[in-house]
Amino acid sequence: MGKTEKTEYIHVSPRSPIAVLACCLCLLGAAPALGASSTGTPEQVAWVRSAATRFVTAELDGNGAGACAVLNAPLRATVRGRTCEQRWNARIAGLLRTHGERSHLRAQLHEIATARVTVNGNVASIALPSALMSSPEDRFLWTENCWMLEG
Prior knowledge:
By secondary structure, the chain is of the alpha+beta class. Helices cover 45% and strands 13% of the residues.
């Protein structure tokens, strides 16, 4: 009867809940941002990566025609008398004048190689830390016998 109970306390770091959440997301398959594997055939995934690479390379080269070659047909249409190439040449010129944009595009080009690609029928997406275009999701559409960037 002379025994005393000793209570032990476990120190929980403020980072512990984040680690637990990250592990749960991995187990639930919701980890595209954490480098989870891609879906679709290897050929489909490679083709989407290739289209994304061509798009970013065209931007780095200041090549509006090259960027337009990856865009879905509605995005290539002439708008207010300006061709897709003219619009993208102007957009890219402004983009490349922005401090740090070239290094951002180079980093994005590097990230494409390992980004999660999801293919669902004739629609695909690539999960990059920053979008290829202004929309929050980089979607590709299988059309014209290749993957074309939809925005």
